[in-house]
Design a protein that fits this description.
By secondary structure, the chain is mainly β. 11% of the residues lie in helices and 46% in strands. The protein is built from two helices and eleven strands; from the N terminus they run ββββααβββββββ. The strands form three sheets. Strands 2-3-5-6-7-8-11 form a seven-stranded antiparallel beta sheet, with no helix packed on it. A two-stranded antiparallel sheet has the order 1-4. The longest helix is centred in the middle third of the chain and has 12 residues. The protein is globular. The termini are far apart. 9% of the residues are buried. The model has no long low-confidence stretch (mean pLDDT 90).
Length: 169
């Protein structure tokens, strides 16, 4: 049944919030939110840019079905919990490379996940990037299955996050 599945790419450009920079940098904190309705499944340009497992296009009906199921009551329950919140629990490391413990509030639950970040600060501009691996259980979710488990969503997934911020007033 695997041949009927796709690797899906979920994107959004609606992450917003506040980063409070402190010295030392490990005393920095952040609170971010992402409206779940902003999630896009299998944007053609994003898939082409990602390449590899995402190079092939996904039929629109499959992308729409995935988005519907993802936002539905059995997974993210976006109708009741319209946003994902990310907040710093702790930050460790040294200039350029940090490990954040991030409180993830999603679908009515809260879980702490570890996220390695590279950080650059140039003047008033901060750029943070993280690539890491999670499972559905890490954020309190159960992957969807269909046909008594014959078709199921893979439990693990990769997260790639780039955050750019400028000093506010």
């Amino acid at each position: 049944m695997q041949k009927f599945g796709h690797n899906h790419l979920i994107t959004s450009d609606q992450l917003a919030g506040e980063i409070v920079m402190r010295e030392p940098v490990t005393a920095t904190s952040f609170e971010l939110s992402l409206p779940l309705e902003s999630l896009v499944v299998d944007d053609e340009e994003a898939r082409a840019a990602a390449g590899g497992d995402f190079a092939a296009p996904v039929p629109a009906k499959d992308a729409e079905g995935t988005r519907h199921n993802m936002l539905g009551e059995k997974l993210l329950n976006a109708a009741s919990f319209g946003e994902m919140k990310l907040a710093s629990a702790s930050l460790a490391g040294e200039p350029g490379s940090y490990q954040a413990q991030v409180r993830v509030s999603l679908a009515g639950g809260e879980h702490v996940v570890a996220a390695p970040f590279t950080v650059t600060i140039e003047g008033d501009h901060l750029k943070a990037h993280a690539d890491f691996h999670l499972t559905h259980a890490d954020v309190g979710l159960v992957p969807m299955t269909v046909a008594l488990g014959a078709v199921k969503v893979r439990d693990d997934f990769e997260v790639s996050l780039t955050l750019e911020a400028r000093r506010g007033s």
